[in-house]
Amino acid sequence: xxxxxxxxxxxxxxxxxxxxxxxxxxxxxxxxxxxxxxxxxxxxxxxxxxxxxxxxxxxxxxxxxxxxxxxxxxxxxxxxxxxxxxxxxxx
Length: 91
Fold this sequence. Notes:
This protein is mostly beta strands and about 90 residues long. It has one helix at about 5; strands at about 20-25, 35, 40-45, 60-65. The chain has a domain at about 15-65. The chain has one helix and four strands, in the order H-E-E-E-E. A hairpin with a 2-residue loop joins strand 2 (about 35) and strand 3 (about 40-45). The relative contact order is 0.17.
């Protein structure tokens, strides 16, 4: 973040190195298929759950903290035929 962003109160949700601050929905830890690669959080879809299309121990991830009155700024990439999105303001 820039000094101006820090001064304006912006907070990083991802440190670029770890999955700290994130967890699997309905759990207190992140699924093992979630990895940090080249400074990005990614789902390793090569690890398949038994006889399904889904990644083993993947699932949706959420932040540990709750936020309100915010602006969300991010970069997002998904492969062809991907099935996911970003949900916010969800309880």
